[in-house]
Amino acid sequence: MELQEIRQLCARIKENINRVIVGKEDVIDHLLIAMIASGHILLEDVPGTGKTMLAKAAAKSVACEFKRIQFTPDLLPSDLTGINYYDQKAGEFRFRPGAVFTNILLGDEINRATPRTQSSLLECMEERQVTIDGVTTRLSAPFLVIATQNPVETQGTFPLPEAQLDRFLIKTDMGYPDTADGVSILSRFKTESPLDTIEPVATAADIVAAQESYTACHVAESVLRYIVEIAEETRRHPDVVLGVSPRGTQAMLRTVQVHAILAGRDYVTPDDVKAMVGPVFGHRIILKNSARVKRGLQAEILDFILSRVPVPSEDLEQ
Description:
two-stranded parallel sheet, alpha/beta, globular, 44% helix, five-stranded parallel sheet
């Protein structure tokens, strides 16, 4: 698939999602970037901001299998990955697939499940496979996890450990709509939900083809160095215990390539990196205990780092 075709594919999906979601252009772009870059996305915000609606609209825009699972404290790992059970009628063990055997998995309120259940997703998200009783089964492509969590109501929740957060390519917030968007939402949902009327505009094969082709987007060596220097600065900041790892820089490389394609370019610029620093690096830095009490400090730290790291200025298109 050509890069221009990837951009057109994303434009069709975005237009379809915009029939349901109002005024969240950046969030939709982040979802599309995660989808094309073979990653996963964590949507964090208070209830009622459209997290689940966005996931459902994206799933209905692509003709592929979709499953939704509500994370609760009594959810078991086998509910996600599947289980071998004894079929008395057949006299043999059979495998019952879990929720991860799908193309798009919506995990609602992922932080309400126990750490044991959360960790059962690690192998699925990173390696696209499930191992049960020593037997490994590959998951079908594409495989995208869209997880949601509420950062405010913390009673009865289990915060995602750093290893689990690192498996999410992007973490983004929905945010409240402004007045005009709020009125538009009420008008759009006044009679019926537009989610019930949208039809698929892409296939699973289209997404797989895009995932195999987006890396053709050119990245100059100076931009690669720029990404690494930003990551190194996160490791030196006095309020940070652990900065961005090499896996984080690889995640940045994948996202900026898709971001450039969505912008209509076949090469990456420093502006692509700046645009994706928050969604990609924000959840990958661990603050000191004294700094964790200050909400939004990650964004301030990353803005400070971006102001310090020299921006490459050579001809990136060449």
